[in-house]
Amino acid sequence: MATTEQILAAMGEIVNEVAGIPVEDVKLDKSFTDDLDVDSLSMVEIIYAAEEQFGVSIPDEESKNLKTVGDAVAYIERATN
Amino acid sequence: MSSTVVVTGFGATTPLGGDAATTWANVVKGTPGVHALAYDWAADLPTRIAAEAVVDPATLIDRVEARKMDRSTQLGLVAALEAWRLAGFGLDEENPVDPTRLAVSIGTGIGGLHTLIGQWDTQREKGHRRVSPFTIPKLMANAPAATVGLKLRARAGIHTPVSACASGNEAIAQALDIIRAGRADVVVAGGAEGVIHPLPVAAFGQMQALSRRNDEPERASRPWDKNRDGFVLGEGAAVLVLESLEHALGRGATIYGTLAGAGITSDAYDMVAPDPEGRGQSEAVRLAVRDAGLQPSDIKHVNAHATSTPAGDVTEAQSVRAALGDATDGVIFTGTKSQTGHLLGAAGAMESVFTLLALRNRVVPPTINLEDPEDGLGIDIATTARELPAGDLAGINNSFGFGGHNVALAFTNANVTEA
Questions:
Q1: d(Cα B57, Cα B80) in Å, to the nearest integer?
Q2: Beta strand residue intervals within chain A, DSSP E
Q3: E strands along B223-311, which residues?
Q4: Do B62 and A20 touch (CB under 8 A)?
Q5: Which class does domain A4-80 fall in?
Q6: pTM value?
Q7: What is the ipTM of this complex?
Q8: Of A48, A64, B23, B326, which sees the most CB atoms within 10 A?
Q9: Where is the Carrier domain (chain A) (predicted)?
């Protein structure tokens, strides 16, 4: 089972890979679009990279609600634990 | 509004170099850009050679930006930015170009093929949820032009002529029209292609179009030679900055040459075979000379399409003679695909750079591998670098494409600013 910290660290790597955001800027309270400036297509890539990495399914109707890094980490945490 | 269109910048990334200066230095020396394909996928193909771009464009572009681009777009962007900088422009707000007077015209023969096929592979292997959301903007044929337009903030229109191996020349011809019509002061124009992938190598192979001289890659591309056996697939991009003479003079730009005219025709003969009588080719050359306000005797140099296929090369020699008549005797021809391979939709743009620099530097780059010329060609082909005479010079760059597209461009050394 992954901890919040482990999931956050992995999300940091994914967001960095896809969107070039420094890992240390990827924090729980950050909005993907407003704070990290992730465009809509890059957001889709982040979601599917997270699905692959954590072995979870994040349906499109759910991913729409993942506004912040914390939302995504919490969703993955629920789905994996 | 002046109808004179000059070249104020150029860039290229090719099998001979990662920039225009390196490419030009190597093409004048006579440098084979064709090599064996060192990929597992090539092992069982009848053709296992190609002319790859020597510098991976992804290494020159921000990593995150690069992953949103197909290789063809990466190549196009690298060439366009080189041309843009050489023209004296930057990427900030202070450019002396009104964005509403800046257009882009960058052609491609095929488009984002690596992306198209690569994402289909992903979908089959991993399912639709793993298909990149960037697939469509990466694979669309207008992606190189659109990417360059976004980068340079061009607002006067973005165009992508698609006419197979004539695309690069057609893009430049379209730029000429745009400036003459007064729709833009500056047009960034050229071609980009990056399709060295097993499918095109197999498919062109099935057409019997590719050389199979796998044991001697450097000698495989040999336009007009009796032992030629097909073209060699190449990749790369080249881009010109074209500008109205008034605009260029107004900002004190260095002028590298004049794009004096263009001639466009279509064969109405066959999808892939050139008309053996070369009527469309000949008429394209005739129209380019007339459009440029030149006489056949003004033409001192022709950069031929000359792909090294059995059918095309001889026809082209005859069609140019039909257009220029006895003045053909005063023309030095070259077939630079002997060195670069065939860059498809980027070929015309790269060879426009060669034609421009040949006139400016008064040197024709050589056709390599021409050891046993076809009988009765009746043209003077440079097999070593050849000097062009002093005084006014004009040259023609030919490109022909599957579908029966013929585009001839006429360049001159008028208005050149001494280096």
A1: 12
A2: none
A3: 236-244, 257-266, 299-303
A4: yes
A5: mainly alpha
A6: 0.96
A7: 0.89
A8: B23
A9: 2-80
